[in-house]
Amino acid sequence: PGCPAGAGEEEGGMSRKQAAKARPAGGKKAQRPRPPPATLGLGGLAGQLQALGLKLREVPGDGNCLFRALGDQLEGHSRNHLKHRQETVDYMIKQREDFEPFVEDDVPFEKHITNLAKPGTFAGNDAIVAFARNHEMNVVIHQPNAPLWQIRGTDKSNARELHIAYRYGEHYDSVRRINDDSEAPAYLQMEMLCKNDSKEEKEIKPQKDEYEDEIEDEMEDAVQKVCNATGCLDIDLINQILKVENYNVESAIFATIQVNEVKRISAEEEGDSQDKGPKSCSSALWEENGSGSRIFGKQSMHQDKMENKGEGRCDEENGASK
């Protein structure tokens, strides 16, 4: 006989034998600690579900959690968990050849089924497969830091999906839309969740435009600050200087003042040249206290003096030749 879909595979570290495990013989219920609330932090499973617009609807950890969670999905509440348990057991008995190979080797099928029928007995993968096939639905299992696990109960393309969560290696909860606090049946589809995911990504895109607008505003503000500090109205020049100075406003202000000073002095020199005729090489611009020295340093002044000395020698030689 074939393996029930999903029943023979490991799920989140739960082996098929653990999944099929019933409570111990003798009628004693396995004592399982109640899992901590899912609301502790937004990491892990709670964060994964929130990203899909979903949340956990917790059910008691009393050994009936699987059938409570499936019942909440199917009917909108978990009060009929005993009924769902019995129907699942009945289906497994009818389809014994599908499920018997996956019971623990040392546990007879009859004993496994007898224990599984008792309230409070932990149920695993084989019960999920039986429930899904009996109702001709697909069961989707959400687990922390793991892909969605789907157990198919039918090949119908429009089959209903029941979404449950599996955590702590032993507990099941129901999964609901984040704003669903009703007692109506849950109708979740993986296809719709994927579309919602895509829609959220599209809605995030405008944020990129807002970010670009914010950067543009900051650049305009930087230009305005440089304008106010320097009196320069050449916006293109200021933009170029800001780019060179890596948009450091203070550095851009200093550089703009330098450029303006050089332009002003050059304009004055040009005006003086036109009014007074050609000047000697020793321009006031490069005197020790001149603006050229202040802006560009004494290296230029030193170079100019060397040129002046050379020119003086030329004059002396010309005078001697005469």
TrEMBL record:
| One GO cellular component term noted in the UniProt record for this chain | cytoplasm
What segments bear the compositional bias annotation Basic and acidic residues? 267-278, 301-316
Query: Taking every annotated instance into account, which residue ranges of this chain make up the domain OTU?
Result: 54-178
Compartments, record wording: Cytoplasm; Nucleus
Q: What is its main location?
A: cytoplasm
**Known EC number:** 3.4.19.12
What protein name applies here? OTU domain-containing protein 3
* Lineage of the organism: Eukaryota, Metazoa, Chordata, Craniata, Vertebrata
In the UniProt record, the gene name given for this protein reads Otud3
